[in-house]
Amino acid sequence: MKKIAFTICCSIIMAWLLPVAYAATFNCADVTGDRLNLFVIMEEAISFQEDDNSRICYRVCDLKIDEGKRICDIRNDCIGVDPAKQTCQRVQVLKGKTGVDLIYNYVGMIYKWAAGTIGIITVFTMVYNGILIMSAGGDSAKIEQAKGRITQSLVGLVILFLSGLILYTINPTFFV
User: Fold this and answer.
1) What are the strands, taking DSSP E only, across the chain?
2) pTM here?
3) How far, rounded to the nearest angstrom, does the alpha carbon of residue 115 sit from its chain's CA centroid?
4) Cα angle 56-37-60, degrees, rounded to a multiple of 5
5) Which residues of the chain have pLDDT under 70?
6) 92 Cβ partners below 8 Å, 6+ apart?
7) Tens of pLDDT along 97-137?
8) Which among 114, 122, 58 has a CA at the least distance from the CA of 86?
9) CA distance to 39, 47, 117, per residue, from 34 (Å)
10) C-alpha dist (Å) from residue 38 to 18, 20, 45
11) What pLDDT score was predicted for residue 151?
12) What is the C-alpha separation between 159 and 110, in angstroms, rounded?
């Protein structure tokens, strides 16, 4: 029961912390007008963070189909959409000059999301086990188990930071 409650709490906190947005350098309208860059539109957003190569946009489509073609447009928001005539769906758009850039951006987004998630879980694991140590009441078996979990969490955090160091050594612009 404690594990389920811990998982639910971590999920709620991650849902609050992940939707951090930054100013993006390209506009959603650029997706249809820019012929110098490649764009990938993902139905499910990996991350809600926006950067130079990623943006949360909205796909607005007409409900009627003309000659078997659905007319869609990419916009910054859903303002002015008539629900009786159009649908509006949130999508994530990746931008790159080449296909390698798109893959690089995609892998970078996954790494940043995973590193943030693992870091948050590690911190909460250490806090939870610290509380277990305080409430152990002198039971040495419980204290040793909690100390072992804290040590494992610290080792996991060190491995996380070392993986970032390795990625930075391979490509210094990975986190930029």
Assistant:
1) 38-42, 54-66, 69-75, 86-96
2) 0.59
3) 10
4) 40
5) 1-26, 29, 32-33, 35, 46-51, 66-68, 174-176
6) 41, 42, 44, 45, 46, 47, 54, 55, 56, 57
7) 788 878 888 887 888 888 888 888 998 999 999 999 999 88
8) 58
9) 9, 23, 34
10) 26, 25, 18
11) 93
12) 17
3-state secondary structure of 51: strand
Residue 134's φ and ψ, nearest 5 degrees, are: -65, -35
Sorted by sequence, the CB contacts under 8 Å of residue 45 that are 6+ apart come out as: 56, 90, 91, 92
Strands 69-75 and 38-42: unpaired
Closest CA to 118 of 154, 94, 172: 154
The tokens for 163 are 């993986």
Question: How are strands ordered across the β-sheet holding 86-96?
Answer: 38-42, 86-96, 54-66, 69-75
Q: Which of 23, 41, 173 is nearest to 96 (CA)?
A: 41
**Which of 24, 25, 176, 22 shows the shortest CA–CA distance to 112?**
176
Residue 165, helix vs strand vs coil:
helix
Could you give the CA distance from residue 21 to residue 161 in angstroms, rounded to a whole number? 23
At 72, the amino acid letter reads: C
Which residues make beta-bridge pairs with 101?
A: none
